[in-house]
Amino acid sequence: MNNIGIFWGSETGNTQVAAEMIGKSLGLPSSNIRNIASATLDDFAAFDVLIIGTSTWGAGELQSDWDSFFPKLHGADFRGKTVAFFGLGDQVIYADYFLDAMGILYDEFAARGATIMGAWPDEGYEYSYSRAVRDGVFVGLALDADNQDDLTASRVTTWADQLRRSL
Ligand SMILES: Cc1cc2nc3c(=O)[nH]c(=O)nc-3n(C[C@H](O)[C@H](O)[C@H](O)COP(=O)(O)O)c2cc1C
């Protein structure tokens, strides 16, 4: 099994809860599940596979700790790293910006050479636009704790199983 690290950023706890669920599904120790607020770029080096989680705030903006961390990504080299994403958003109130932050991080990691995994179909969501959708699919696991929290556990399990099989 690859060494997997989950890095999450969360304002009100939803992304943290999802990160812990994903970690549990993958059988990871809690030390592999890190808050980006207290992480450094060097922390990424310990892992072959990074799972990157963010909620979206403002109108299509990064969660605040990811926003602070973001400039550090510009100097990073993710060649040889496998990276998967998950995002938390609200498809009803923010239908024009649904999960945009996941798309922002995707662009940055992809531009720096990461091998991306974990795309997720957009069936079962109602939104107008998402920067996290490419070629008709989400670039990572799409979660909406505000409107579809009842689906979160099954989405996490399905996605984590798919990820485990493709690693
Ligand atoms: C002020 C505000 C702005 C938000 N902006 C967006 C947005 O642009 N796009 C989106 O998909 N969700 C948006 N959301 C929804 C949050 O991303 C969602 O509630 C998420 O579950 C929060 O996760 P967290 O507690 O981990 O930060 C916004 C929520 C609030 C309160």
Please tell me about this protein's structure.
With 167 residues, the protein is α/β, with parallel strands linked by helices. The protein has one domain (4-166): Flavodoxin domain (Rossmann fold, 3-Layer(aba) Sandwich). It is built from five helices and ten strands, in the order E-H-E-H-E-E-H-E-H-E-E-E-E-E-H. It has helices at residues 14-25, 41-44, 64-73, 100-111, 149-166, and strands at 4-9, 33-35, 49-57, 61-62, 82-88, 115-117, 120-121, 133-134, 137-138, 141-143. Strands 1, 2, 3, 4, 5, 6 and 10 form a seven-stranded mixed sheet that branches. Helix 1 (14-25) links the parallel strand 1 (4-9) and strand 2 (33-35). Helix 1 (14-25) packs across helix 5 (149-166). The protein is globular and about 35 Å long. It starts with a strand and ends with a helix. Keywords: Electron transport, Flavoprotein, FMN, Transport.
Assign an overall shape: globular
Number of domains: 1
Report the structural category. alpha/beta
* pLDDT averaged residue by residue: 97
By CATH reckoning, the class would read Alpha Beta
State the order of secondary-structure elements, H for helix, E for strand.
EHEHEEHEHEEEEEH
Please give the largest β-sheet.
7 strands, mixed
Radius of gyration: 14 Å
Helical stretch tally? 5
Helix content: 25-40%
| CATH-defined architecture | 3-Layer(aba) Sandwich
Name the poorly predicted regions. none
Task: Count all strands and give the number.
Answer: 10
- Look at the structure and name the CATH superfamily: Flavodoxin domain
Proportion in β-strands: 15-25%
Q: Report how far apart the termini are.
A: 8 Å
The set of bound ligands, ions and cofactors reads:
flavin mononucleotide
Organism: Chlorobaculum limnaeum
Function: Low-potential electron donor to a number of redox enzymes.
Pfam family, one: Flavodoxin_1
Cofactor: FMN
